[in-house]
Amino acid sequence: MRPICRSAALVLAALLAAGTAFAQPRPAAPTPADVRSELPDPARKAWDSAKQLADANDYRGAQVEFQRAYELSQNPRVLYNLGVVEKLLTHYARAVSAWNRELTEGAGKLAPGEIAELKNAIAVVQQFVTTIDVTASEPDATLSIDDYVVGKTPFPGPINIDVGKHTLKLSKPGFADAMQSVSVAAGQKTPVTFTLEPLHKTAVVSVTVGGATNATVFVDGRDMGPAPFKGELSADRHTIEARAPGFVTVGQTVDVVYHQAMSLVLSLSQERHEGRLRITAPDGAEIALDQRKVGVGSWEGVISTTGGHQIVVTKPGFQTYSTDVLVADDQTREVNAQLNAEVGTSWVAWGVGSLLVVTGGIVAGYFVFRPTNPSPFAGDLTPGVTSAARGIHF
């Protein structure tokens, strides 16, 4: 019988208690060298630790140390003991995997008796192993069976799994873990399909812009760089705009659907700084805009909104109407030109003439009736005598 550690030091009761068929007579062959003696020092220490743990029935700990001894030495003969402790832990598929790997890696190195022993162990345990056929929506996703990593998608073929009920998990960075519970029976290949959902659902959106060669694409107000744009946007509602100097910004609000590519074409048109002006004047009045005659009585048209404009309205017999106006982009401005009749010039002249005549008469009268050379008056009244006393009458 072959001991678990391929040395006489490890008790074989655990194998017998597990109901294995390892007690079959070993074919006569030259005794292979002791595995421990083939190991480098770090791997030998891990081997010794595994042996001690197995002696204490701590098969989980022994599994870890045998795995470490194999990784440090890359000696395929270590895999036999690794398979034994996996079998004792009822990890039948893992045990078969370890023993098959030893057969592959140890080709030409193993003694005939070791090969026979490995094939016999596989045959005994294989009845507790079946397969699942795993397909996934994403490559490079890690599959775990009962928290044990078995590999990454896509898989080249069916995966060995122990008969019974298991929890399968597929995980990939940027995606939500997908989990399934499966019950598998012996002799059946069970199909398992995984669909991974991204944590941030996106879709590819392409934006091309016409009308301008130097357009920039904006998504929800964020600069995404020069057009054309192609990238992933979250599956949500977005406002996509195209902007360019001298052009009117154009945009569109779209609903981006997960995994559905979208193409969007935006066309830019040059900016037009224009508005409308509507002028109403009396019948027969001539309308001039910025010193250019544009109509009689009324006029309406498109004008530039950059700067002000002068309106002049004239009609014989009426005072000239003049004003400056400003019109905003896309604005319609209305101007109602009211004309006032002119005041007659003859009345004004007469009135001024009369004023001059009247004023002149006053001035002339002043000089006619004013003494030309007034002289001092010598009175004949005696001081202290009243006029009445003197018999003077007025």
Describe the structure.
This protein has four domains: 13-128, Serine Threonine Protein Phosphatase 5, Tetratricopeptide repeat (Alpha Horseshoe), CATH 1.25.40.10; 130-194, Immunoglobulin-like (Sandwich); 202-270, Carboxypeptidase-like, regulatory domain (Immunoglobulin-like, Sandwich), CATH 2.60.40; 274-336, Immunoglobulins (Immunoglobulin-like, Sandwich), CATH 2.60.40.10. Mean pLDDT is 83; it is low at 1-5, 7-29, 346-372 and 374-394. The protein has eight helices and 23 strands. A four-stranded antiparallel beta sheet has the order 3-2-5-6, with no helix packed on it. The protein has a four-stranded antiparallel beta sheet with strand order 10-9-12-14, with no helix packed on it. Strands 19-18-21-22 form a four-stranded antiparallel beta sheet, with no helix packed on it. Helix 3 (41-55) runs antiparallel to helix 4 (59-73), helix 5 packs antiparallel against helix 6 (92-105) and helix 6 (92-105) packs antiparallel against helix 7. Helix content is 26%, strand content 32%.
